[in-house]
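Example 3.2
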Amino acid sequence: MPDSIPLEKELSYSRFDLMSEKYPKRTAVVYLGEHFSYERLRNLSERFAGGLAGLGVQKGDKVLLYIPNCIQWVIAYLGIQKAGAVLVPVSPIYTSHEIQYMLNDSGAKTIICMDTNFGYVRETFESTPLERAIVTNLTDLLPLWKRTLGLLLDKVPSGRVTRDERVIPFKTLLINRPLTQKPALDPLADLSYILYTGGTTGFPKGVPGNHIGSTSYINNVTFDVAGEHLREGEDVYIAINPLFHIMALGFFMAIGLNRGNRVVLMPQPQVDAILESIQRYRPRWFLGVPALYRMILENDRLDQYDLSSLRYCFCGGDVLPGKVMNRFREKYDLPIYQVYGSTEAGHVTYSRIGTEPSSGSIGYPLKSRECIVVDPVTLECVEDGENGELFVSSPYALKEYHGKPDETRRTYVKVNDKLYCRMGDYVSCRPDGELVYMERSADVIKHKGYRVSASEIEAVLQDHPTVINACVIGIPDERTGERIKAIVVLKENARGVGGVELIRWCRERLAPYKVPGYVEFRDMLPKSKVGKLLRREVRDSERRKLMKKTGS
């Protein structure tokens, strides 16, 4: 492996540290116009690690990171890793209901949040192990004049924070001396993170990952996928997708910080701001989701911006519709390469740079990932070209859920004495190894680039006192991938309960992207002989109705 770091000794921050020694004065991250050099970013992250240690955070302790894309996210991520703690990154738009569950499930005693979502955190202190909240604002590390201007123009959201001994300003941790005595870490044995994904029983599942697990696929992307196309110390990547997502964080490190390159970090996916930043900073590397590419192409002011610097555009989160791919190719004479992975398996497949991606392709397996396509019932491998469920294995990945043995047994199964992760996606394999997406599990809904668990929403709906059964499905939609629809059965004596109330009930307990767009009421739902909800049957019926309605 390049740069003389044996994989078995590599930690999640090893190559960043190497780049900070090699290119100390070069810009690592541009955030809201402020440039943070590699030297400065390393110093801030090591001060933050020292601050965590001063608060009593020890090796193996869990730290929940509950903030959007900002320079503090990067500093906290690196600092948590250097302190030997375990990163637990979550969506900054989660509700107190979701945060409470994740704090209890992970056992995290420390949370890093924004002043705007501190209110949710405050509600969890008495019902979780939480001992302290480190609070920041989007502009905390910007110059005073920028913070002042942002406030005067009402451009910076802010929230009310109740101060007591459990609430610590983010900036106070940066006053500490850098942590010089880093704890000894074993890349294979010690955890780097716990990421949460939707659960098939209605509860999110924590996916633990060690340091070698993440560095294995990140190095694959850096040295095998990007390879000679990536110019160390000279390239620019614009980071738009939320860093709490495994796809975005992996690409951020692989293309950016691990190769001494400049990353333009966007706090929100606002199309005009993205286009302006591309014109200004001239990135060659770009990663988006299908909805973002569609929004860019539909922007009325698109022709006002110079996007000629772009060379390597990737898409993940869902399969890119052929129509969007073709429109982008016609507009900019650029292919859009595909990325595929999951929280459990990490980055799994990539398109090959220089080879035109075919419609429906999700690319080729990375060197550290083994993919097989099997019959989901017999677990026998299918022939090339036949449809089957994708199973993924890696010697570097941990194959379990945190504290959920039953879920672990359902998802991680043995085939020919090797443990594989069931991806829940159905694909076919071409003779050269390229994988083509066919369909997904009925439980998984792809909405705005997010993988949403239907059963998680169903569990929330069934907590409502008038609901006795619920089925949640995805309805195909050009703009969002799939719209979320809930079909509900109420108790006989239910009175005055409508879709508005149930949607409000969900909104109070779920992140906005998980909330159903509309609710339909029925007298009954189809079930198997053993009482299991036949969600696929409901989904297929709804899709047939949609096809009949649209004539497609």
